[in-house]
Amino acid sequence: MKSLRVCFACVVLLACSQTFGGIEQPRVATATEELNPQRFEFAIESGYLFGAINPPASYEIGAEFLTARIRWGVMQGDTWLRGYNQFYISAIAEPIFRGIENHYFGLNLGMRYNFVRPGSRFVPYFSGGLGLGWIDSHPEIPGGQGQDFTFNILSAAGISYIVNDHWKLNVGALYQHLSNGGQTDPNRSLNLFGPQVGVTYSF
């Protein structure tokens, strides 16, 4: 009987520890692991951009990106520059909700730098790249783009949150410039700013 009471007490203690002990905390990455995360990433990112500066017409654009990244280069040490580089390529699809044109499709290639803080799951970043694409231009309308073929410039800054070894959530701000590089006269262009969110899978 005494041994039965001891077993019962052990079961109760185990149940209480599971109930009130909380969820086991994820393993903290070592300094080496922090600077050598998974080498490849795929990200789905979405933004909402507002036109500014030069076009006479108001623009509001949905910015959808499918991005592949590869880790390339590490900055070690104890400075604020501690982190790693990534090379990326993005496929772009943008419905134009407000403006003269209706849609834009393109590609963008560039670099992203991730600032790694020791022991932190938050990873600030900035990125920039150049690319090309096609817009359904309307040069006959004042303020419309002069031709379908355009170049693009993208720049972004934000912060990623590491959920686990494979998943990250991202939030940031995005700037996009669209122009045909002076191939038409007048050379209309678009400057767009807005927020961006995304989810990233690493492997």
Summarize the structure.
With 203 residues, this protein is mostly beta strands. 12% of the residues lie in helices and 56% in strands.
Overall mean confidence score, pLDDT: 85
* CATH-scheme architecture: Beta Barrel
Globular, elongated, flat, extended or rod-shaped: what is the shape? elongated
In the CATH hierarchy, what is the class?
Mainly Beta
| Uncertain regions spanning at least 5 consecutive residues | 1-28
Supply Rg: 24 Å
Find the CATH topology. Porin
Fraction of residues in H or I helices:
10-25%
- What is the beta-strand fraction? over 45%
List the domain count as a whole number: 1
Order of helices and strands: HHEEEEEEEE
Q: Major sheet: size, sense and barrel closure? A: 8 strands, antiparallel, barrel
DSSP strand tally = 8
**Strand order across the biggest sheet?**
1-2-3-4-5-6-7-8
Tell me the distance between the termini: 54 Å
Provide a count of the helices: 2
Structural class computed from helices and strand pairing: mainly beta
